[in-house]
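Task: sequence design from structure.
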């Protein structure tokens, strides 16, 4: 079997910003299905894919906000605006991330180095809630676009996680809400992330704060739980 071709830079940009055709399994066999670009899909997930009503009652309840989707969309939007600023002297236009991505891609090449910022957290002293800050990184245009796709796909297919049944010590959030199979479900804001059956991190889906294995002792104390190494498996 031949190895599949690596997508081009334009393929990545189109997948992020344009409608794409995909094959889906139905009872009658495979059928072609047109789906929105990944950024539009992510935007729809912020409010569970529900837009405002055109003429219904003005007091209809808003669907719960998906903080993880909003945080990811904001992060990609900021990075896309930063990337655009590196190749254009014009003010960044007000608009959606798709506009920034397409404008930027039209002024750059896949191997051109691009500087953007990423959100990080740092525990300066043991026992202190981690400080959230932005760090500058330099990557190729291709790597940056691919990282956006990987992040969005990771949102829809999350890594191996285990919930922590306690409020976040950083933002005090106990639960977040997700849309699954068209229904709103309540999930623990805090969770462990595992890689190769090893617990490597605890993270809050609401504020984005994270704690490494070295900080599990402090986190257990802050949450008044038994040692996290025990409950994380």
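Answer:
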């Amino acid at each position: 079997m031949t190895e599949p071709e690596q997508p081009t830079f334009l393929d990545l940009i189109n997948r992020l910003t344009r409608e794409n055709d995909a094959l889906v399994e139905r009872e009658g066999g495979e059928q072609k299905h047109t789906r929105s670009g990944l950024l539009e899909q992510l935007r729809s997930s912020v409010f569970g894919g529900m837009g405002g009503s055109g003429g219904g009652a003005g007091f209809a309840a808003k669907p719960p906000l998906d903080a993880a989707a909003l945080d990811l969309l904001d992060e990609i939007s900021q990075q896309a605006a930063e990337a655009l600023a590196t190749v254009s002297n014009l003010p960044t236009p007000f608009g959606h991330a798709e506009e920034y991505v397409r404008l930027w891609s039209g002024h750059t090449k896949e191997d051109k180095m691009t500087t953007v910022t990423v959100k990080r957290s740092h525990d300066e002293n043991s026992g202190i809630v981690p400080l959230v800050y932005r760090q500058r990184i330099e990557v190729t245009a291709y790597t940056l676009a691919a990282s956006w796709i990987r992040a969005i796909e990771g949102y829809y297919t999350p890594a191996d996680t285990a919930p922590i049944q306690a409020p976040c010590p950083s933002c005090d959030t106990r639960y977040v809400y997700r849309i699954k199979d068209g229904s709103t479900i309540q999930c623990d804001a805090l969770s462990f992330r595992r890689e190769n059956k090893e617990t490597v991190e605890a993270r809050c889906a609401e504020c984005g704060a994270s704690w490494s294995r070295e900080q599990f002792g402090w986190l257990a104390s802050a949450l008044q739980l038994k040692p996290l190494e025990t409950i994380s498996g």
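Helices lie at 9-17, 38-46, 67-87, 97-105, 141-156, 216-223, 228-232.
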